């Protein structure tokens, strides 16, 4: 009787030990997988941050330069051609997707998709509530593929109102060019601090490393 119960105790201890080892291994495995998948997202996030910051900084810097020179034509070309060049180059080089989007777009190519529209609407709301943050991202699934979707709000500064502000803030020469080039323009009437739009990045994540 005594011997039997000692055996049973030993057996139970051994089982407990085995279970603990298995749990430990499983936890380690899950942690490794998590880390690999986090690394995929981290890398995509760094790329998204880099290109969106480069785009907004470059456009702002060159706009300022042209406006200081008093060249509205030059400035218009910056907000159109320079921005389009940067996004095209990134897309061609990386095979990813970056573009500017806005609910009140000037160039119809900048009209948002469903996902972007929802986000832009929430940016307007968050901005009114003074809760807007500098970036938003999440991993989404589309037809079995995972993507990082990243949006960085673009805020209208004072100099932007030259071409995106109230009609009486926009010089006549600029109004003329805009009317000719963008007959269906929606990108005026903004005030300083409004959400003008967003830089939107979408990056396909490599398939999961460990299954
Ligand atoms: C000199 C005029 C001018 C100024 C100043 C200007 N923009 Fe623009 N903006 C334009 C034009 C023209 C377009 C259309 C671009 C295109 O065709 O790709 C545009 C487009 C945009 C877009 C893309 C969405 C859309 O409406 O098609 C964003 C975002 C934007 N501007 C933000 C800004 C911000 C922010 C500033 C200030 C830092 C600014 N712009 C200053 C002329 C200007």
Textual characterization of the structure:
- The chain has 211 residues and is α+β, with helices and mostly antiparallel strands.
- It has one domain (40-204).
- The protein is built from 5 helices and 4 strands.
- It has helices at residues 2-69, 72-94, 114-128, 161-164, 172-181, and strands at 97-101, 136-142, 145-155, 195-204.
- Strands 1-4-3-2 form a 4-stranded antiparallel sheet, sandwiched between helices.
- Helix 1 (2-69) packs antiparallel against helix 2.
- Heme C (HEC) binds next to helix 1, helix 2, helix 4 and strand 4.
CA(first)-CA(last) distance = 48 Å
- State the secondary-structure class: alpha+beta
What is the typical, i.e. mean, pLDDT?
A: 90
Number of strands: 4
Strand order of the largest sheet: 1-4-3-2
Spell out the helices and strands N to C: HHEHEEHHE
What proportion of the residues form beta strands (DSSP E)? 15-25%
Biggest β-sheet description:
4 strands, antiparallel
Name the ligand types: heme C
The best one-word shape is elongated
Radius of gyration: 26 Å
- Our count of domains comes out at 1
Number of helices: 5
Helix percentage: 55-70%
Low-confidence stretches: none
Key attributes of the depicted protein:
211 residues; alpha+beta; four-stranded antiparallel sheet; 5 helices; 4 strands; elongated; binds heme C
């Amino acid at each position: 009787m005594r011997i039997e119960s000692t055996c049973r105790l030993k057996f139970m201890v051994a089982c407990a030990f085995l279970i603990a080892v298995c749990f430990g291994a499983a936890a380690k495995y899950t942690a490794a997988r998590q880390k690999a998948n986090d690394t995929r997202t981290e890398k995509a996030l760094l790329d998204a941050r880099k290109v969106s910051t480069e785009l907004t900084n470059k456009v702002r810097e060159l706009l300022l330069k042209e406006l200081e020179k008093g060249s509205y034509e030059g400035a218009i070309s910056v907000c159109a051609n320079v921005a389009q060049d940067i996004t095209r180059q990134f897309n061609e080089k990386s095979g990813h997707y970056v573009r500017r989007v806005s609910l009140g777009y000037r160039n119809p190519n900048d009209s948002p998709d469903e996902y972007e529209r929802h986000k832009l609407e929430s940016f307007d709301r968050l901005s009114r509530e003074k809760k807007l943050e500098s970036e938003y991202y999440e991993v989404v699934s589309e037809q079995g593929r995972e993507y990082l979707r990243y949006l960085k709000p673009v805020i209208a500064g004072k100099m932007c109102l030259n071409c995106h502000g109230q009609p009486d803030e926009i010089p006549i020469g600029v109004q003329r060019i805009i009317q000719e080039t963008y007959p269906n323009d929606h990108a005026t009437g903004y005030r300083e601090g409004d959400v003008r739009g967003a830089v939107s990045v979408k990056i396909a994540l490599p398939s999961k490393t460990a299954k």
